[in-house]
TrEMBL record:
Cofactors, names only: Zn(2+)
Species of origin: Kiloniella antarctica
InterPro entries xref list: MetalPrtase_cat_dom_sf_prd, YbeY, YbeY_CS
Protein name: Endoribonuclease YbeY
Compartments, as annotated in UniProt: Cytoplasm
Length: 208
């Protein structure tokens, strides 16, 4: 995608205020479980569209993505869920054994054979779900002296890359994923989220 087309897509996204929208073969669903999101981030849908679109285009599927023949699928879909600490804590405990809230959870379906078969039947590949917690996001943004919009965008980028098969289990994987995040955020006008005044700001994974 050329920079001109990308810029036009970004500009159009500012006017988006829907719970589902589609662009360049990618359908993005948005579910708001906590209405306070729209008070804290009135343009959250536009931010979602821009971050998800650019991450999908620039990230591509990781070399580790095990879903075969995904290139034969012309369309994809994913969902973004705007939730809160109580909800995400339950999910974090159920799926990761951690009884505490976290900033973002990503549930990729690339390794699910049933989803792969369904994708070939429908012609649409389901990438999975990204779930974000409002309270944790706000707290982290304040603690790390970041704009709320920038931190929200960073977590979206991080979540999309997980859905595309990227991970940070090893040092090499973490470096690859982090470098991609920094590149994507730079294209969105957001500085390196892992550094503050030249010093390392975040140690380890952001979705603990």
């Amino acid at each position: 995608m050329s920079d001109l087309i990308m810029t036009e897509a970004m500009e159009r996204s500012l006017e988006i205020d829907n719970d589902a929208f589609s662009t360049i073969g990618l359908e993005i669903g948005v579910e708001v479980r906590d209405e306070l999101w729209e008070e804290d981030l009135p343009h959250c849908r536009a931010l979602i569209h821009r971050a998800v679109l650019l991450s999908y285009v620039l990230g591509g599927f990781s070399s580790e993505a095990s879903c075969v023949e995904i290139t034969s699928i012309s369309e994809a879909e994913l969902s973004v869920v705007l939730s809160n600490d109580p909800d995400i804590q339950k999910l974090n405990l159920e799926y990761r054994g951690k009884g505490k809230p976290t900033n973002v959870l990503s549930f990729s379906t690339l390794d699910d054979p049933a989803e792969e078969n369904l994708a070939h039947q429908r012609g649409v590949l389901s990438l999975g779900d990204i779930i974000l917690s409002r309270e944790t996001l706000i707290c982290e943004a304040k603690t790390q002296s970041k704009r709320l919009e920038d931190h929200f965008t960073h977590l979206l980028v991080h979540g999309v890359l997980h859905l595309l098969g990227y991970d940070h289990l090893s040092e090499d994987e973490a470096l690859e994923m982090e470098s991609l995040e920094i590149e994507i955020l730079s294209r969105l006008g957001i500085k390196n989220p892992y550094e503050l005044d030249g010093d390392r700001l975040i140690e380890g994974a952001i979705d603990e």
